[in-house]
Each structure stands twice: as structure tokens, then as C-alpha cells.
Amino acid sequence: MAEKQGKKSSAPNRKDQPVSTTNKATITKTSAADEEDAVCVKCDKVVSAQDYAICCEICESWFHIACQKIPRPVYDYMVVEESGKQLHWNCSFCKHGYENMHRNLKRLEKQQDDITRKQEVIVAELCETKETVREKMEQVDTMENRVSTLEAKNLGVTDYIKQDETIKLSLITRVSELEAKFTGVESGHVGMDKQNTTSMKINQQQAQEQVETVIGEVYRRNTRVNNLVVHGVPEERSGTEEQGNEICMKYIQRIMEVCGVRDSSEKIEKVLRLGKTQQDKDRPLLV
């Protein structure tokens, strides 16, 4: 805040004397003579050393106190040296700009706080995602180890199935030989009752069926050793069952490829869902 000297009234008291109104803390010019070219921004009149005028601390423009409607008592108090260090005056334009700047700074400060909070949330989500990825990678490693173990077991089961096929062919051959013998006995009219021969033939047929049943059951059991039950595979409910099985087949093939199983499409015969359809739960997948 800076003020020019003003001419007072002629009353015989302390206020009649001109008062130096220069505030050295805010004005760059040191005397009224330096301000002879100063003009009041409000009325465009020259501000002389005898005028009661005040200077804006921000834009350093001069104003008559009458143009700014500043009362004389207030002006007289403002020009006192002690009060000059405590009171500051700005024109309406600078005051409005300062208020806008203060509001903008407050808004920017609030935006900065919001950005900081969002950054903290994003960092927390990234840490959580990193932990989830680590857990998934551990699950993939575990699944890969299990697939390797199953492949090793599958080789042994395949050999066992081949042995069963050999036994089955041997039994069928033996049964065929027995049929030939019984046929020869019946056609040769050997001293044997025809009814007994028929009964033996029936018994032989039943024995053959039982043998084939046992062999088939052994084969199915050995085949089920190669089955996998996979949980957590998304279930397609919008299309047909055939379309859903085709999607599941591709999903399992991708899992096998990730686990390092080559030619997985040739090793998988079929896939199907176990249990009844549920709207809120995916059924296990039999591979």
C-alpha cells in the first residue's frame, strides 16, 4: 500500500498538517516528485503530491480516495507508519483476480488430493493383481506337473489295455474252437443225446457272454483311468449342447498346449458335462 501526500483543511490542529503517506514497504518511488506523472485509474486525472491518493500493492496503480470511496479516518489510519505494516490495500480488479486465484488454488489442491487418493487405489489394485497373477502361475505349474504324471501313467495303462486285447482275442479263439468241437460232435452223431448237446451249447453261449462282459468291464475300467475331471471351465448356456461341447474341447486343448502336451486334439476323444444344468454354477467337465 502506498499513499500520496494530501492537502488538509486549515483547522488549527494536528490533522491540518500535510502527512507523509509513503509506505516504503510497497512503493518503489521515494517521493511525491517522482510520481508527478501518476494518473488516477478511476478518473484519469493526474495525482499530485497534494492529493489524497492511494496505490494498489499489486498493480501499483494510483487512485484518489474519493474515487475509491475510502473515508478520511480510514485513510488517516492507513498512512500511519505502524499501521502501514499491518494493513494492505488492493484495487477492486486485483482483489477480484486474487480471489479467483485463491479459489483456483483451492480447487487445484482438492484435485491434487483426489488424484493422490486415486493413485493409492490404483497402486493397491496393481499389487492385488500382481498377487493374483502369481497365484495363477503357481496353479499352472501345479497343473503341468499333474499332466506330466498322468502322461506317465497313461503309457502304462495303454500297455495294459493292449494285453487285455490280446487276452480277449485268445479267449474268443478258444471259444470258437469249442464251438467247432461241439458242432462236430452234433454232426457226427456221436452217442450223445441231442438235448444234452443243445444244453451244452446254451451253457457255452452263456459262458461266452459272461467272458465278453467281464472283458468289456475291464476295458471300460482301464479306459476310465485316462479320464480327467476339470472344474471351473465356463459353461456355454446360450447355444446347443453340441456347440457347448465344441467350445469346451477348444478350451481343454488350450490348457493342454499351455502344459506342453503335444497333439492334444488326437488324445482327447470327447468332453461332456457332469450333472444337471444350473444357472448360477458351472458343471464339472469330464475329459
UniProtKB/TrEMBL annotation:
Keyword Metal-binding: yes
Residues spanning the signal sequence: none
Pfam families noted in UniProt: PHD
UniProt-listed SUPFAM superfamilies: FYVE/PHD zinc finger (SSF57903)
GO MF annotation: an example: zinc ion binding
Transferase among keywords: no
Assigned keywords, A-Z: Coiled coil, Metal-binding, Zinc, Zinc-finger
Annotated region described as Disordered, given as residue ranges: 1-28
UniProt domain PHD-type: residue ranges: 37-97
Stretches with biased composition (Polar residues): 8-28
Classification via SMART domains: PHD (SM00249)
Coiled-coil intervals: 98-153
Descriptive protein name: PHD-type domain-containing protein
